[in-house]
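Revision sheet: structure tokens.
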Amino acid sequence: MRRGRPAGVLMSEEKYQRLRGLAWDRLQATVSSMRTQAAEQGLTEEKLAEFLADER
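Predicted:
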């Protein structure tokens, strides 16, 4: 505890690796979904590069 709040968690290495893998799987699924939605709406790598270049 730190300042009355939980500051850490103790768990086995096996459980930590399993949770870490689940988080990675979720991230990959989210990115894949976003990529599909962007493509469906006509966003290409070129258009994205143009948008990002305008922000500089």
